[in-house]
Amino acid sequence: xxxxxxxxxxxxxxxxxxxxxxxxxxxxxxxxxxxxxxxxxxxxxxxxxxxxxxxxxxxxxxxxxxxxxxxxxxxxxxxxxxxxxxxxxxxxxxxxxxxxxxxxxxxxxxxxxxxxxxxxxxxxxxxxxxxxxxxxxxxxxxxxxxxxxxxxxxxxxxxxxx
Length: 162
Fold this sequence. Notes:
Layout: E1 12-19, H1 23-31, H2 33-39, E2 46-53, E3 60-67, E4 72-83, E5 87-91, E6 94-95, E7 99-100, E8 108-117, E9 120-129, H3 132-140, H4 143-161
Antiparallel strand pairs: 1-9, 2-3, 3-4, 4-5, 5-8, 6-7, 8-9
Helix pairs in contact: 1-2, 1-4, 2-4
């Protein structure tokens, strides 16, 4: 699998997991809103209250998070690259249709790759941040911990889909 960018440990978060399931199931869990709602938000922290995905370059990636305290946080972005069952790239820096985003949150771009490995799938999630300061702030906010919990939930969901 080719990599289209260089990882910078000062700005990029990388999560690498083996999922003992075929990549078709991992892809389904990543790209179907009814599945994404089950794993995307750490259950102890809140839930996905709404999800809309048009999985194609320029398509919408919209996830609203409802916290335990009753706050809703909309997250809107755009798919940049879609290679079914291999690669998914999306960003919060653009709105659907590649429209420049306006937001007050930390911008990021996510790159998900999947590769068959034995009977399972090597899943790698990478989040690119604009700067070291953004990465540090995001990490200290609990985002990195939440992302790891969400990955655990993704693995459990995919296992239950077998």
